[in-house]
Automatic annotation (TrEMBL):
Protein family membership: Belongs to the MurB family.
Pfam families on file: FAD_binding_4, MurB_C
Protein species of origin: Parashewanella curva
Top-level taxon of the source organism: Bacteria
The protein's name: UDP-N-acetylenolpyruvoylglucosamine reductase
Principal EC category: oxidoreductase
Pathway involvement of the protein, from the record: Cell wall biogenesis; peptidoglycan biosynthesis
Record-linked InterPro entries: FAD-bd_PCMH (IPR016166), FAD-bd_PCMH-like_sf (IPR036318), FAD-bd_PCMH_sub1 (IPR016167), FAD-bd_PCMH_sub2 (IPR016169), MurB (IPR003170), MurB_C (IPR011601), MurB_C_sf (IPR036635), Oxid_FAD_bind_N (IPR006094)
Chemical reaction(s) catalysed: UDP-N-acetyl-alpha-D-muramate + NADP(+) = UDP-N-acetyl-3-O-(1-carboxyvinyl)-alpha-D-glucosamine + NADPH + H(+)
GO biological process terms held by the UniProt record: cell division; cell wall organization; peptidoglycan biosynthetic process; regulation of cell shape
Length: 341
């Protein structure tokens, strides 16, 4: 690393010591506009950094990193709904806590997901039976080329499973600046997922759900401050019912859930069944208890994580004929890359 390079080690939860050439902190839309204008007149690779909890810095990045620090929470309401307008740099979990404190229900199942509010729409974050898209009213972004601000309705965001327009058509072209939420005052608890089923529907409060989600997550998932990770490393693959039936015939205990007209396979089960739980390649490893989580024992480089991820993908393909796809975004020397380079 030369003196003109800046380490991104403090800014990514995998704890990868990769660098960039410039790191700019964005605290206002005016500043964002200024920097995007500069980047469009004097082009250089760039990407937006939130909490760094959903990206793998595969190599040193030869460009500018825009670190989102836009702050602000605006809350209004009418008879039926709470409306929140949240700046992209706000911390997601702190927003969940803010809602609980202000008796705004709906976000509690998504407690303890690391990262910023502005990143939440990108992969339509989800956990414990709730997805971001169910709470979202609109998303506002600045176009990197024109610097114009546009607001999309939730429907226009084309949310899907860990997917949205921001990972497709608008990928790398916009910076999300504000997120709008519309939360019904006629709150209904979502208790259909795993350990939440033990809660009593008629008496449960959003605080009870929040507390249980936090407790289970703290038991299950390694804390990135202690052991570098990005949560689930692979998406759960979606296969047709026919494909699932043929897999089920060979692997009767296969873990899977209905997903629209298809079946979603539990990627963690596939990795565990392949005997890869705890598998280690240098300082990169599959977590000992959570097969879906790849960890950095301290000194792993981005390329070590990618080599391990490729090995897992290859093994799962060979054993089950199923293609695993990484969930985090992979950042190479000049910008986003795919697992194949
Ligand atoms: C321990 C752990 C548990 C997790 N659990 C879950 C979970 O339960 N469910 C889940 O869905 N995810 C989970 N994640 C993944 C992650 O927390 C989420 O995807 C989160 O939304 C990422 O936010 P971030 O600010 O850290 O994004 P970053 O990692 O900083 O960025 C992710 C991508 O979004 C882009 N980006 C970020 N902000 C903006 C913006 N304002 N405008 C445009 N592009 C932007 C970046 O360029 C990058 O491509 C977990 C991660 C960890 C480490």
């Amino acid at each position: 690393m030369t003196s003109s390079q800046i380490s991104l080690l403090p800014y990514n939860t995998l704890g990868l010591n990769q660098s960039c050439t410039e790191l700019l902190t964005i605290t206002s839309e005016a500043e964002l506009k200024k920097q995007l204008t500069k980047l469009s007149t004097k082009p250089s690779p760039w990407f937006v950094l939130g909490g760094g909890s959903n990206l793998v810095l595969c190599e040193d990045f030869n460009g500018v990193v825009l670190k989102m620090e836009l702050k602000g929470i605006v809350h209004t309401e009418d008879d039926r709904f709470h409306y929140l307008s949240i700046a992209a740099g706000e911390d997601w979990h702190q927003l969940v806590e803010y809602c609980l404190e202000h008796e705004i229900d709906g976000l509690e199942n998504l407690a303890l997901i690391p990262g910023t509010v502005g990143a939440a729409p990108i992969q339509n974050i989800g956990a414990y039976g709730v997805e971001f898209c169910e709470l979202c009213d609109w998303v506002e972004f600045m176009d990197a080329t024109t610097q114009l601000v546009t607001r999309l309705t939730a429907e226009e965001c084309q949310f899907g499973y860990r997917d949205s327009i921001f990972k497709q058509e608008l990928k790398g072209k916009v910076v999300i600046t504000q997120v709008g939420f519309k939360l019904s005052k006629n709150w209904q608890p979502v208790l259909n997922y795993g350990p939440l089923q033990q809660l009593e529907h008629n008496t449960v409060t959003s605080r009870d759900i929040f507390d249980l989600v936090c407790q289970v997550r703290q038991q299950k998932l390694p804390d990135p401050k202690m052991l570098g990770n990005v949560g689930s490393f692979f998406k759960n693959p979606i296969v047709s019912v026919e494909r699932f039936q043929s897999l089920h015939a060979s692997f009767p205990d296969i873990a899977a859930y209905p997903h629209n007209d298809d079946m979603k396979l539990a990627a963690g089960w596939l990795i565990d069944k392949a005997g890869l739980k705890g598998y280690q390649l240098g300082q990169a490893a599959v977590h000992n208890n959570q097969a879906l989580v790849l960890v950095n024992y301290g000194q792993a480089k981005g390329e070590d994580i990618i080599t391990l991820a490729r090995y897992i993908i290859e093994q799962i393909k060979q054993i089950f004929g199923v293609e695993l796809e990484p969930e985090p975004r992979l950042i190479g020397q000049h910008g986003e890359i795919t697992i194949n380079g």
